[in-house]
Design brief:
This protein is of the alpha/beta class and 315 residues long. It is 50% helix and 13% strand. It has an eight-stranded mixed β-sheet, sandwiched between helices. Helix 1 crosses helix 13, helix 4 packs across helix 5 and helix 6 packs across helix 13. The radius of gyration is 21 Å and the shape is elongated.
Length: 315
């Protein structure tokens, strides 16, 4: 798929959010030569409704006013350019794709709450890696839910990737430990480990995740090389609380934000980026494998407003 086609899929996936942000805004700008209080209040309301959050909205508005003071509000396009630039500015520090280097096997530990889409995200990432001619092994560390193991095994069959699994209720740390040993012995490039979905407030379950990390580190002190937290966009501001708790417990190194197409709350990505500044590795905007995209700050800022990406600053 061409880069243009990929971006159009992203725009379609974020259409609910972009519609909420931009519908009727052009008429609100009509005839204005400056960013007055009424227009600022209108933009603020739209950002907050998209789950950008109060603090992040204030930062965006401050940057927007500064840009338009330099460039002036000549028409609606000038407003959109300035708003898009202000949004991108929040996102750019998190624009850090996952780079695996020569570590082998590179271990990705995938965590998150129930229903966030962890297992599906693992399958999509694994398929992308296989398409790039990487050998991938999957570890079925969610031993509490038989359906999760079966789902991972289906992904394994689809992409011809081995899956290490044990009986229902087995010790998750033991499964991942065995998978690492197997991946090492078979010279696999990447090991992706699934884990049981858990609420970030369940301390006993968070302790199990720490146990998984300790188990792998007995063999490889630097592992996991990526602790990827999967967040569902539709959970809104609660996603920030999840990220804070998981980060404190495990040291999250990357985020995958899923189900952006099913929500008008795509602004939550801005709030997360602003609050945590953890690299956003992937964004999910649909069911297909190609709908899990490597995060790009400028593309996201454009799609959020239903526009093309821009990279030039207003001077």
């Amino acid at each position: 798929m061409t880069e243009a086609g990929v971006f159009q899929r992203l725009r379609r996936g974020l259409s609910k959010t972009s519609d909420a942000l931009t519908e009727g805004l052009s008429s609100a700008v009509l005839g204005k030569k400056e960013l007055d209080d009424d227009l600022i209040a209108e933009i603020e309301d739209r950002l907050v409704m998209a789950d950008v959050g109060i603090e992040t909205t204030n930062k965006i508005i401050t940057a927007l006013v500064a840009r338009l003071n330099r460039a002036q509000l000549t028409d609606v396009e000038a407003l959109y350019d300035a708003l898009q630039g202000s949004i991108a500015e929040i996102l750019i520090p998190c624009n850090k794709p996952l780079i695996m280097g020569r570590i082998q096997p590179f271990v990705i530990l995938v965590v998150g709450v129930n229903g966030a889409g962890k297992t599906t995200t693992i399958g999509k990432i694994a398929q992308r890696l296989v398409e790039y001619r990487q050998s991938v092994m999957l570890a079925a560390g969610d031993t509490f839910r038989a359906a999760a193991v079966e789902q991972l095994q289906e992904w394994g069959k689809r992409i011809n990737a081995p899956v290490i699994a044990q009986k229902s209720g087995a010790d998750s740390a033991a499964v991942v430990f065995d998978a690492y040993q197997s991946a090492k012995a078979r010279n696999m490039n990447v090991l992706i480990a699934d884990t049981a979905g858990r609420l970030h407030t369940q301390q006993n379950l968070m302790e199990e995740l720490k146990k998984i990390k300790r188990a792998i580190q007995k063999i490889e002190p630097e592992a996991p090389h990526e602790t990827l937290l999967v967040l569902e966009a539709g959970t809104g501001q609660n996603a920030i609380n999840q990220a804070i708790e998981f980060n404190q417990a495990l040291g999250v190194t990357g985020l995958a934000i899923t189900k952006l197409d099913g929500s008008a709350k795509g602004g939550i990505v801005l709030a997360i980026a602003d609050k945590l500044q953890i690299p956003i590795r992937y964004m999910g905007v649909g069911e297909a494998v190609e709908d899990l995209r490597v995060f790009n700050a400028h593309q996201y800022a454009g799609a959020l407003l239903g526009r093309e990406p821009i990279t030039d600053e207003i001077t």
